[in-house]
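Sample 3 of the quickstart, ligand coproporphyrinogen III:
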Amino acid sequence: MTVIRTMALMDGQPEARVDAQPGASVTAGPAATSRSRFVRAARGEAVDRAPVWFMRQAGRSLPEYRALRAGTAMLDACRDPDLVTEITLQPVRRHAVDAAILFSDIVVPLVAAGVDIEIVPGVGPVVAKPVRTLADVEAIKAITCADVEFVATAVGQLVAELGATPLIGFAGAPFTLASYLIEGGPSREHALTKAMMHGEPELWRRLLARLATITAEFLRTQIAAGASAVQLFDSWAGALSAADYENHVLPHSRSVFDALGEGTVPKIHFGVGTGEFLHLMRAAGADVVGVDWRVPLSEAAHRMGPGAIVQGNLDPALLLAPWPVIEDEVRRILADGRRAVAEFGAAAHIFNLGHGVLPDTDPEVLSRVVELVHASQQ
Ligand code: CP3
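Result:
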């Protein structure tokens, strides 16, 4: 499969013009994207308008994605650098978002670590032999960058293609990965997970510590290959109380962020239903905290304290409503983001959804949301 060259497209993007200023770097990766609105906002610098990208912008909402994926299993697609490159670029071309997010999945490093796991369409990740014992934990091997070389190759190709548009790398946080491994698949209650957390704290600690080293290596690989930012997805952490999060999860997520080092690319931390402990997610070592639709951005900024950078928080379900509803909601969120900065000391707002794009979303609507965000000044 050949990757379609996209530089002509990138020329049309505002970010490309930002970088074309005298003295701007022309190299790929973080040097080329350091003046982009997304990276500047993610560092807490003032920007003229909120940058916008969408979680799950690559994927089933796009007919061109469905056509390309036909006949290829999800995890095989994730291991094919040319497919990853093309799928990652599709939403950037179509929507002119301010950042790309690597097409991959949170379970990709687990496969590299030797876990027998499938992504079942319409279900999600399913694990053949759920983790129950210390032997199960020790069978999950610590990965090196060589085990996920296909990701480094894809990231390298992408930063060359993307020019001044930043690429966001990502990984699943230890808790969310542990939930899949312990439950054996998606779970509403996370009951077995919580039972292990409290009933077998040493086993729990060892499992999360192992997952933290795998996640950190996966993120370091993406950063070394040129990703301009990374997002740690702790999608299911909202199932926990703040106390459980603080005692049993936060130390492991912190060790992931710590392993990336000071002075690295901006770090984003995201969870769903985590309004009760947004301040802890920030304290784990994040520069930017993703907020779902349950908590207004200004309230999130208030809870996290001065200097927070908020990302979010349009309810993805609302994208299925008529356009006037969506338009009002986008404007409200932009105004609330400005309020987060002006009244609650937030450093910046990055526009996003409160969770991923739903497969039934009309891609035209996503493009219109980007246009609307782009048209509004700070
Ligand atoms: O555009 C992007 O955001 C990048 C792509 C991305 C995928 N998965 C692609 C994908 C990202 C960031 C993820 C992360 C991910 N994967 C998370 C955390 C983010 C979140 O949504 O909370 C989680 C929990 C997973 C696990 C997972 N993988 C689920 C729940 C599913 C959906 C299963 C289904 O069919 O309903 C997947 C599969 C998956 N990951 C798809 C995509 C595009 C769909 C696969 C397909 O096209 O058949």
